[in-house]
Specification:
The structure holds 2 protein chains of 2 kinds. By secondary structure, chain A is an alpha/beta fold. Chain A is built from 9 helices and 7 strands; from the N terminus they run ββααααβαβαββαβαα. In chain A, the strands form 2 sheets. Chain A has a 5-stranded parallel beta sheet with strand order 5-4-3-6-7. Chain A has a two-stranded antiparallel ribbon with strand order 1-2. The longest helix of chain A has 17 residues, at 16-32. By secondary structure, chain B is α+β, with helices and mostly antiparallel strands. Chain B has 1 helix and 2 strands. In chain B, strands 1-2 form a two-stranded antiparallel ribbon. The chains are: A alpha/beta, B alpha+beta. At the A-B interface, helix 7 and strand 7 of A face strand 2 of B.
Chain lengths: 208, 39
């Protein structure tokens, strides 16, 4: 299916299914071979670059860290509070979900959402490895989040909305799953120079 | 949607030193943190 890219007011087009397949290929590789060469940094180096609290990072296992491929720090502007319920949109191998799980504690809960099976397999295995009982991972898309209305106190995300061709739908879903008074805190890339139409239509540039 | 109290953090040179740096520089791409409240 061909969809509008970015907002519904834009006329640029990208094939949503083809883009999803390419994104899944890319991030499946990051799940199973996190130290290969990608167009972005991964793991602990990327976390340091994104100004994470490395003491909090060090509390995680290596499997929770090595496939991190975020572009910023969703906890930069606000720390999570104990007891909060958190949804992580595009949770990948679970790095931000596990940091969130440690921050909200046993009275809180974290639900990570991802569309890539290899990432889901890895995040679930790491949750078992860490004995994390307040976090779970569900398969889903940012445009159709498998979480009930108003469940979340906080929605986080890191470097995933930019990979979503229907960004307005992703933000509507974030709005839907948040309670009134809930907080959307996420990290993503933004461009200072305009991206020409032919570049927006180039799937290789979306994923690399 | 009507998110309020939107805040944006300081940029991160996300792709600096990575193989994606050239494309990132072309389009002046950086990582940012965002915060917004659902009233």
């Amino acid at each position: 299916m061909t969809q509008t890219a970015g907002s519904h007011t834009e006329m640029l087009v990208i094939d949503r299914e083809a883009l999803r397949i390419e994104v899944q290929k890319k991030y499946a590789a990051v799940a199973v071979a996190p130290n290969d060469d990608y167009h972005f940094h991964t793991g602990r180096f990327a976390a340091e670059r994104c100004r994470y609290d490395m003491d909090a990072v060090d509390a995680l296992t290596e499997h929770a860290i090595e496939s991190f491929a975020g572009v910023g720090n969703p906890f930069d502007l606000r720390d999570l509070e104990p007891g909060e319920k958190v949804v992580d949109l595009g949770s990948g191998a679970g790095f931000d979900s596990f940091l969130a799980a440690n921050a909200v504690g046993s009275e809180g809960a974290v639900v990570g959402i991802d569309m890539t099976d290899e990432m889901l397999d890895k995040s679930r295995a790491t949750a078992s490895e860490m004995g994390a009982t307040n976090v779970e991972f569900r398969r889903g898309f940012l445009e159709d989040v498998p979480v009930e209305d108003g469940w979340a106190d906080v929605v986080i995300s890191n470097g995933v909305i930019n990979l979503c061709p229907e960004k307005a739908e992703a933000f509507r879903e974030a709005w839907r799953v948040l309670r009134s008074g809930g907080i959307l805190q996420f990290a993503d890339i933004a461009n200072g120079n305009p991206v020409p139409e032919e570049a927006v239509q180039d799937i290789d540039l979306w994923t690399g | 949607m009507g998110f309020v109290d939107v805040r944006i953090g300081e940029p991160v040179d996300t792709f600096g030193g990575a193989t994606g740096e050239a494309n990132a520089r072309t389009f002046d791409v950086s990582g940012y943190s965002f915060l917004a409240v659902k009233p």
